[in-house]
Fold this sequence. Notes:
By secondary structure, this protein is α+β, with helices and mostly antiparallel strands.
Amino acid sequence: MLMSVCQMLQRRLVSSAAAARLSSAELRSHRSALFSKEQARQRSLYPRTEKIEVTVQGPGLQGTLLVMNRGASTPYSCTRHLTEWHMKSSALALVDGQPWHMHRPLTRSCDLTLLTFKDEDPRIVNQAYWRSCAALLGHVLDGAFKDDFSVELLKLPEVPVTAGAFCCDLVLDSRLDSWTPSEENLRSFTRDALQMVQKDLAWEPLEVSSSVALEIFSHSRCKQEEIEERAAQSQNGTVSLYRCGDHVTVSGDPLVSSTGLVSQYEVVSVHTLGESEWGVRRRAQGLSLPLNLTAHHKAWKMLRKRAERLVEIPSSSSTETPPLTAEATPTSPPPLQ
């Protein structure tokens, strides 16, 4: 036990020194290259084509049987055999009742349910969307300060939609300890996010061993700690990674298929939470609505005002949330309440 603790501390000290030698762009490129290497290795595990049967569930689809390729076909691949609406609207899937990313390969014959924001009960997909919006904010912040200042993205808080804002916790370079973002800074973050939305970038999933995840994030002491924690909680000791562009992040639960599912998106505030073991901890917050759901500018203004307030995150918060709706009035709860 003592040996493992010493090895962990030594690894973190080495990773900290290595990180000082790499720019932010170089770190992103390094992580993305290792992600691609592991992705290729996993794909090579299925050298020959083996067929599986996928039974699609859902309105108008009950009993639809698709013959797909094990280890290569994904829920998104299945939508290409259905309709264009299913291709564009499916944000998440259930495989034998379990949440499954749209681009995660299917490894067995299964029942498949495609989830959209228009479902009668969209709570699962709404929470995945909120989580994805936070991951997108992390992507923006990771590159927002160029190579002039370091950015350490902390573990993404799992915030229910009812909180009114999605959150991304981070620690900035100590030279920015007294920095307070201006409205123009927030608008700049929002513009960067909307550029990624317009590009419709896929969130690529990859389930990896803890050793691979630690190698990918060998320059981040914070991420190494998160990886060790998530691996310890996982039944098979694996960790879920997601890549968008060249940005790689860790997530405990699935994200939606791509950034193109975002309709309205705005970064509204950055709060200083105080000192932590990593430095001055901050919480960036934002507000968003998914594709096909929009809010009138007056309703959006109300939602924005609420989203600006610091989101307090209890140690154990429920993620059971009501569905997002497009309707909102001052006398009834707005869509992201």
